[in-house]
Amino acid sequence: MIGSHVWVEDPDDAWLDGEVIEINGEEIKVKCTAKTVVAKTSSSYPKDPEFPECGVDDMTKLAYLHEPGVLQNLKCRYDANEIYTYTGGILIAVNPFKRLPHLYDIQVMQKYKGAALGELSPHPFAVADSAYRQMINEGISQAILVSGESGAGKTESTKMLMRYLAYMGGRVSNAEERSVEQKVLESNPVLEAFGNAKTVRNNNSSRFGKFVEIQFDQRGRISGAAIRTYLLERSRVCQVSDPERNYHCFYMLCSARKEDVEKYKLGNPRTFHYLNQSNCIELDALNDSEEYIATRRAMDVVGISEEEQDAIFRVVAAILHLGNVEFSKGQETDASEPKNDKSRFHLKTAAELFICEWKTSNMPLLFRCDEKSLEESLCKRVFVTRDETITKALDPNAAALSRDALAKIVYSKLFDWLVEKINVAIGQDKESKFLIGVLDIYGFESFKTNRCLTGCHLPACL
Known about the structure:
Four Helix Bundle (Hemerythrin (Met), subunit A); single chain; 14 helices; alpha+beta; five-stranded antiparallel beta sheet; 2 domains; SH3 type barrels; four-stranded mixed beta sheet
């Protein structure tokens, strides 16, 4: 009715609030602060005239739980430096894009210890404490889901949850012995180097799902942990949208110490197809050379040997060289071959880098990769039937797709191996009584060409 306070959509400000001054059938005229708007009654929402100036800490208390009402409440709290808000048992976090160390120190942890959910201000520590108390009191394992779009701050929230669980269930250990929770946190730089990338909204976005199991004994003490990863965004290895970047490790290796760059026959990242599809190569807030050193140091901490580190980066370099192999028409119909001497150089280099000697459990293993065999695997496809084996030549486009498929699967297998290695270093307790799982599911992006996580086009995949 005339005089009512409502919310109406606006192309610039998303939602505007105002007073209804005229009604014409299905349309209403609303007088807002800066202008008068005509809108359909079906697309307008009532506004609570008694809405508190600083908002409410639990949105179930709102008179109207609709989109403009929720956004208004979050904005009011954000303006008052309150970045956390409840909706019942769900905690909503708004990324402040700055460090707020006073919110997460030991005194804050002590304050939330044993407090009922909703008794104190909304906080990740309250969610973690609730999960821990229910696990102890009811004897049932718990899980915490951290979800949101890219750049929302999910990974940081996950770290805060784990810090609190370590505070509640951490063991007292000698100064020389690292605790389980310390090992989990120490593994982050390695996982971030190989599983994180710069996206439109976030310079360090996790491009994989991570489920961290914190295992507890009968007394509620942490006895082990395991990291389960899944849905690595493999398509990013071969396809990067501007202004994003590929995985950090590629740029780190190109900015490594001189002897490593020469050993892996690398150079400027802009010379590699898998990196130069985007104009974003360097990041102001990230020094790739320093990050390379820090990643090598983190690998030492989690027990990855020098020989294994060399093999890891040989694979990373081989993938970059593989991406520079181009194809042209071969002598046979629908056949293909490396386009020129430059492509043959990268093919040969990739094959050489894939050859490595790796000691596992004191047993030396030699992995061989023949240049000719690698070329045939890219330019030909083999079909095995019950009676015979059929080899089909691939045209240049199909060969390029075969090249990208190989790069994606090799990188995915490398990432899986790293996670398994980290789990061995952390130590799992297969006899644990309970566990609290923290699921950090990565945020999705919108691209001009959307593909599923394995790289196929979404409509066909669905």
